[in-house]
Amino acid sequence: MKTLLKIVGIYAFMAFAVSCSSSEDNTSPTETQEPNTEELAGNWTAEKAVFEIDFDGTIEVADFIGEGGTINLTIQDNGRFSIEFVLGENTETISGQMMQNNNLLSIVFDYAPNETSYFEISNMDPTVLIDGGPLEYDFDNDGTSEPAVVSFRFVRN
Fold first, then answer.
1. Are 122 and 128 in contact (CB under 8 A)?
2. Could you give all domains of the chain from N- to C-terminal order, each with its CATH number?
3. CA–CA separation, 84 vs 7, rounded Å?
4. Which residues contact 86 (CB under 8 A, 6 or more apart)?
5. The pTM of the whole model exceeds 0.70
């Protein structure tokens, strides 16, 4: 049950990222700019996927990779991507379109095509760091996701 709740928490955090993001002009990356993701194109595996929340001054941390999960990210030259979260026997795949502009990564998920989410990105090939939030994660496995900040570290396959 704990495994299933974590997968649900991951899906909820992705949905929350879309619902809480904002865009000044509400246009997707592909409508106004070129994807600019050629340097990111390829297959990536997460070495780190950490979610953090501040509970009244106490920092709570959830380490998705440390819990036995894996995350695989595939990015095409045109900015299309898919990210697969695997924890135990549970798998969740999310896809969309991304565009990089310096240290800003703009993402439009396929399940919310009218919303743009923003993350900080540092590309130090063969490593990419992606940070952002607030997102959501179910820290106490009660079925309710709490707002959190996420930090990913991906390495090129």
1. yes
2. 2-156 (2.40.128.50)
3. 11
4. 69, 70, 71, 72
5. yes
Q: How many CB atoms lie within 10 A of CB 143?
A: 12
Q: What are phi and psi of 14, to 5 degrees?
A: -65, -40
Per-residue pLDDT of 8-65, as tens digits, reads 444 444 443 433 444 444 444 444 456 688 899 999 999 999 999 988 899 999 999 9
- Can you tell me whether residue 157 is helix, strand or coil? coil
- Integer Cα distance of 133 and 149 in angstroms: 4
d(CA 106, CA 79): 10
Quickly count: other Cβ atoms within 10 Å of residue 126's Cβ.
11
Contact 122, 129 (CB under 8 A): yes
Return d(Cα 114, Cα 156) in angstroms, integer. 30
CA distance 151 to 132: 7
Residues in Cβ contact with 97 at an 8 Å cutoff, skipping those fewer than 6 apart: 28, 29, 30, 35, 79, 80, 81, 107, 108, 110
Question: Which amino acid belongs to residue 75?
Answer: I
Phi, psi of 93 (to 5 degrees): -115, 130
pLDDT (0 to 100) of residue 21: 42
